[in-house]
Protein 1
Amino acid sequence: ANGALRWNHTFEVSEELIGKFGGIFLLRAKAIDNALNEKVTFVLIRIDPTPPELNVD
């Protein structure tokens, strides 16, 4: 996103990547401007591959 003030990136997570049990993953993003100022941020993402269950009586 060269020169962009804002951008989005969508990515898919495969079962091969998260396994059958999911887990907590660290997402790291880094930005560098034209003056070579840097900013790094981290976000923890919890992935639970178990489908929801609903019982109606």
Protein 2
Amino acid sequence: MTSGTAFERDDTGISLPQLRPARSRSHRFSPCARPSTTTSARPTRTSPPSGSAGSSWSETPARAEGIAEIERRAAEYGLPPLAWPKPWPGNTLVAMRAATFAKQTGRAVSFSLAGFRQAFAAGRDLTDVDNVMIAGAACELHPRALLKAVETEGVKGALREATDRAGDLGVEGVPAVVVDGEVFWGDDRLEDAVEAAARS
């Protein structure tokens, strides 16, 4: 399974800073301080797309090509060179439970950003609980509270429910944004998602 965050419009009152294109159709985005239509960030685990024989592309002969494509896009976005964690991909179940707890405390987006910085800027393995705790500390989640939370049935159940919800919505991978039932999957669809939200 892959892990990440899906965003869905709802009425929970959780606002997500809108991503606006810095240049028209350029695939470059910058965060906008003004909140967008109310959305909810949902940490989720997703199954590989149909037709992949149960494997992520990262575990197939297409791995090198896929990594090169991600690095190319990151450079286009103006991001620093990626530092790939080892192993990658790894079992991020604990990290996703931590993200679920972060959501419950209103820190889903900040934890996700901190986690991705740990993984792909610092090259730290998120299968290592210590690195998950570092990401939590970066968004003011106390390590002891986080360690306790990831073992609770409430957090485990919430992640399962979010994963089931993502499947019901048709989410096959992350990042994904759901606008009025339409799934926009992948960083190259973010601008389309913003435009769809603006129209509805």
Protein 3
Amino acid sequence: MSFFERSKTQSGKLNEYLSKNPYSGIVLLSLKSRMFLFPKTVGTLIEIIITKES
């Protein structure tokens, strides 16, 4: 999977997660703004958060 495809599915997962957990939005938005600097770290973090919640 290319980086572009990965970030696309991650943002899809992120939006899905945000619609279920609106209060986590603030935290995830701050992560998302840093995503450009650390795409891998933040992506992994988000995946961990989402897997824990579901």
